[in-house]
Design a protein that fits this description.
Layout (H helix, E strand, L loop, with lengths): L2 H6 L3 H4 L8 E10 L12 H16 L8 E4 L5 H9 L5 H4 L6 E4 L5 E5 L5 E8 L3 H16 L6 E2 L3 E2 L11 E8 L1 H5 L3 H10 L2 E4 L12 E6 L7 H29 L1 H17 L5 H16 L8 H10 L2 H7 L7 H16 L31
Antiparallel strand pairs: 1-5, 1-8, 2-3, 3-4, 4-5, 6-7, 8-10, 9-10
Helix pairs in contact: 4-13, 9-10, 10-11, 10-14, 11-12
Length: 379
């Protein structure tokens, strides 16, 4: 599979439907593994990294799930191509900075991907739409077992899987859910939620993980500890917290509709107006405004079949995707802002204007949501 095919096709985790997908955008589980007796990538010489790469890459490509997979060494990809994979959440920013001895392999649906010689020898991840942590764990657990038939992973009877960073020792697992929380942000409750989640050993991060900003009201909720709990216990605890956050977001939207409907409609209407008529817009502003359009779809102000158009814009308006779409290696910031605005205007032309009257400003509403979602706006 060529990279152009990946770019042309939206990943299954974005285009597909999943439980509670109006608020939980995606679920992901990542496992860190290292080969027994081999130095970690940060300590290995180039020849050692290359040898590890070839051993792991051969094993990964032979997995049944990886038929017709995309497989490429990072030093054979351009900086722009690597950034596209970062924006698709298929490799990390740290992996994109690697060169000789590192590679990426992914299946055709982009639900299963492998980073070879990132911080660890192997980091594999499964990702699907909506709240499906149990399903993505089952997927990555099976893959892990299949690879253990041919690869000898470093494992300690007392500590578990050995990793380059001590915070990953044990299960080597990071499970996370990407959540869209505009209701909690607008009602100024999100910091309270983040603080509560941090106190119970979970983490809330931005759009691209640790150290990144929560643009577009998108937050990653994940486990912090990997030692002292089984994978199933971590998944169970995370599921429980995500359901609680999901419920808080539902309640926040309900209260906004009942008590601040004019403010909510103003935000959605302003976002639609700006995005339909702007001729220059930054990535951050675009994501934040698209967040309100996405919530407008959730509330029934736009037809639900427009949801994919909006979700795709979250990815397509990112800097590398804009440039790759035009086959241009480098655009200036002003050129990207202009191109981004044109792309959004063109896509929103396919959507009708928001039906503001569907949400009476006295708090009652006739809006409805999909069967997999939970938002109900009755007063």
């Amino acid at each position: 599979m060529k990279l152009s095919r990946i770019i042309a096709n939206t990943g299954e985790w974005l285009s597909g439907a999943g439980p509670h997908d109006q608020i939980v955008v995606s679920s992901r589980v990542r496992l860190a593994r290292n080969l027994k007796g081999k130095p970690f990538p940060g300590w290995a010489k180039k020849a050692e990294r290359v040898a590890v790469l070839e051993e792991i890459r051969t094993a990964v490509e032979q997995l049944p799930e990886m038929e017709e997979s995309f497989s490429e060494k990072l030093d054979d990809l351009s900086a722009l191509e690597k950034q596209v994979l970062v924006e698709r959440h298929l490799i990390s920013r740290e992996h994109a900075a690697k060169g000789a001895g590192s590679a990426v392999v992914m299946n055709t649906s982009q639900t299963l991907s492998f980073m070879i010689n990132e911080e660890d020898h192997l980091r594999m991840q499964a990702i699907r739409a909506g709240l499906q942590l149990d399903q993505v764990f089952a997927m990555i657990n099976q893959t892990d077992s299949e690879l253990e038939d041919t690869l000898d992973f470093a494992f300690h009877n007392d500590l578990g899987y050995l990793t380059a960073c001590p915070t990953n020792v044990g299960t080597g697992m990071r499970a996370s859910a990407m959540m869209h929380l505009p209701g909690l942000v607008m009602s100024e409750q999100v910091n309270k939620i983040i603080n509560s989640v941090n106190k119970i050993g979970l983490a809330v991060r931005g759009l691209h993980g640790e150290g990144t900003e929560a643009m577009g009201n998108l937050f990653q909720v994940s486990n912090q500890t990997t030692l002292g709990e089984t994978e199933e216990e971590i998944i169970g605890r995370l599921n429980k917290v995500i359901f609680q956050i999901l419920e808080h977001e539902q309640n926040a939207r309900q209260i906004l509709l009942q008590q601040r409907a004019e403010t909510l409609l103003d935000q959605i209407g302003r976002a639609y107006g700006i995005l339909c008529h702007a001729h220059s817009i930054t990535s951050k502003e675009a994501l934040n405004l698209l967040s309100f359009i996405k919530m407008g779809v959730d509330l029934g102000l736009f037809p639900s079949n427009n949801r994919l158009h909006v979700d795709e814009l979250f990815i397509e308006t990112q800097p590398a995707h804009l440039q790759k779409g035009l086959q241009v290696t480098k655009l200036g910031a002003e050129e990207r802002d202009s191109l981004r605005a044109a792309l959004i205007r063109a896509k929103l032309k396919q959507m009708p204007e928001p039906e503001i009257g569907k949400i009476p400003t006295n708090g009652s509403t006739t809006t409805s949501t999909s069967s997999t979602s939970e938002t109900s706006e009755e007063s």
